[in-house]
Specification:
It contains 15 helices and 15 strands. It is α/β, with parallel strands linked by helices. The protein folds into 3 domains: about 5-35 and about 60-135, Rossmann fold; about 135-335, Rossmann fold; about 340-400, Phenylalanyl-tRNA Synthetase, Chain B, domain 1.
Length: about 400
């Protein structure tokens, strides 16, 4: 018999397996009778805000969560987002299915939510035959790769949204680059901006899967926190859009010695050239990530609406939620450049890290743009070359 506990997130109360009872060393595991991770609440908070913002502009009649667990994610969408859209929830675990059904009934949602037991990859196809889904939310334990093709096939070709979480960070962050190539279609590398590379590998996989069905993608938002990455993207059927977006696929090369990086589209004239990490005397071994997505990873207009919704419903979200969305909005202006981790840069050049605000102040005086990033508090995005950053930090060190 499953030991249950009632939880509350936002305006939604629900039952799940007691995390404290089943956790191993304080962490939820896949062996729990019904998986639920309270630490992922900020993920669900932002998801609620983004779907709410999406609903301000687009119609959603039917959504799907193919790996439902306790059902908390879909419950929150149905309760906290405007509209009377319906939802289908799947899980292969019979205990999770019963928990979902119980939660649907407890929240008075039997007319809007349907729970089915079975294989997510199969159900995504069979349950969307009569009506395609306007929104699919993939939140697996581990990699979403096995479910992406089925998810895209189940989406409304006239316009829809896909949300995807990946927690296999060792694969995406360069520990297992060959596994990344197999699952995500591109090599991962170890780099100070590896979490952004993880996001871009995930988008790259989705672009290729969508392109096989003549869909184009339009990234909405990207999140990296607590050892996972999460992305949201719009999709619509358009061969021409998918063809145009091929220019957004490429590689990012990085030298761990001099910290130079180079972004190169695959379609760039002349093909993949040699990365000239032109720091005098540098013999560092260049690492190359990709192919991956080089294009936009934020949609400022939708994020602005999401930010307004969070402000209006402040009591429904954790304190971290508005800060993360605000940081996403700020870094959108320089999102085509990988962020630079100041501490990693200083380690490479044997410098003492100054305050980030001091660096940004000098950059502004020198005519360079810069923003903070939600990926890590010790990093910035800037259009200044790495050599200029090193020079600024050296000068700031001398003033001490």
């Amino acid at each position: 018999m499953t030991i249950e506990k009632e939880y509350t997130e936002g305006r939604t109360s629900f039952l799940s397996a007691d995390v404290e009872h089943y956790a191993v060393k304080g962490q939820p595991t896949a062996d729990m009778p019904v998986f639920y991770n309270p630490r992922m609440q900020v993920n669900r908070d932002i998801s609620v805000a983004i779907l709410s913002a999406y609903l301000n502009e687009y119609s959603v009649d039917l959504m799907c969560e193919p790996l439902a667990g306790s059902g908390v994610r879909t419950l929150r969408y149905l309760i906290e987002c405007d509209g009377d859209f319906r939802a289908k929830m799947f899980d292969i675990n019979p205990v999770a299915v019963e928990m979902c059904r119980k939660n649907v009934e407890l929240n008075g949602l039997k007319q809007r939510a349907e729970v089915t037991r079975g294989n997510a990859k199969i159900l995504l196809i069979t349950e969307s035959k009569e009506q395609r889904f306007d929104f699919v939310d993939l939140d697996p334990f581990g990699t979403p790769a096995p479910y992406i093709d089925s998810a895209i096939l189940s989406l409304n070709p006239r316009g829809s949204m896909l949300g995807v979480t990946a927690t296999d960070m060792a694969v995406l962050c360069g520990v297992y680059p060959r596994v990344a190539l197999r699952k995500y279609g591109g090599y991962s590398i170890r780099a100070p901006f590896t979490h952004e590379l993880a996001v871009r590998l995930l988008y790259g996989m989705i672009y290729h899967a969508a392109g096989k069905q003549d869909y184009g993608i339009q990234p909405v938002a990207s999140l990296s926190t607590d050892h996972y990455v999460r992305i949201w993207t719009k999709l619509h059927e358009s061969r021409s859009a998918s063809n145009r977006q091929s220019r957004e696929i490429g590689v990012i090369s990085f030298c761990p010695e001099c910290m130079q990086y180079h972004v190169q589209p695959l379609r760039e004239k002349g093909g993949l050239g040699y990365f000239e990490h032109a720091t005098e005397g540098c013999n560092g071994s260049v690492r190359t990530a990709g192919p991956l997505w080089l294009g936009a990873i934020y949609d400022s207009s939708l994020l602005e609406r999401a930010s307004e919704i969070i402000e209006q419903r402040n009591g429904d979200f954790t304190s971290q939620t508005p800060k993360l969305v605000s940081a996403m909005l700020e870094e959108e202006a320089l999102m085509h450049r990988p962020y630079v981790d100041i501490h990693a840069l200083c380690d490479a050049y044997s410098l003492t890290p100054p305050a980030t605000d001091d660096i940004r102040c000098v950059l502004k005086e020198a005519g360079y743009a810069s923003t903070k990033t939600h990926f890590t508090p010790t990093a910035i995005r800037t259009d200044a070359p790495v050599a200029k950053l090193v020079e600024i930090i050296e000068n700031l060190n001398k003033r001490r």
